[in-house]
Amino acid sequence: MTIKCRDIPEKANDYVDRDGPVGDRLGVALHIAMCSNCRTYVRGLRLTRRIAAASFRTEAPDAVVTRLGLGDGPSTDTGKGAP
Ligand SMILES: [Zn+2]
């Protein structure tokens, strides 16, 4: 299957996620090897994903960490018997 520029927006997510049919991903890989416009598009998509992922990596509030017992501080209270 030959991937054309108009197919890239639809297929690029799977390509970046390494998801979906191998044939499609291979087609995208071959296409962006030859097409600088689509290469730029995929690069932008990857960058956007990275920024979005980083925004989720903010620290959890102390109250949440304590409540879940994830902190390495004094967490004697496991929440059992809490109101
Ligand atoms: Zn293209």
Brief digest:
It comes from Oharaeibacter diazotrophicus. Helix content is 59%, strand content 0%.
Between the first and last Cα atoms, what is the distance in angstroms? 60 Å
Query: Main beta sheet, described?
Result: none
Strand residue percentage: under 5%
Radius of gyration over all CA atoms, rounded: 22 Å
The structural domain count equals: 1
Number of helices: 4
Number of strands: 0
Bound molecules: zinc ion
Helix content: 55-70%
Mean pLDDT, to the nearest integer, reads 85
| Shape summary | elongated
Structural class: mainly alpha
User: Low-confidence spans: pLDDT under 50, at least 5 residues?
Assistant: none
Order of helices and strands: HHHH
Overview features:
single chain, mainly alpha, elongated, Zinc finger protein, 83 residues, binds zinc ion, 59% helix, 0% strand
Would you write up a description of this structure?
With 83 residues, the chain is mostly helical. The chain has one domain (5-67). The protein has helices spanning 8-17, 22-34, 36-55, 62-67. Helix 1 (8-17) packs across helix 2 (22-34). 12% of the residues are buried. Bound molecules: zinc ion. Zinc ion binds next to helix 3.
Outline the fold blueprint.
Blueprint lengths: L7 H10 L4 H13 L1 H20 L6 H6 L16
Bound molecules: zinc ion.
Protein name: Zinc finger protein
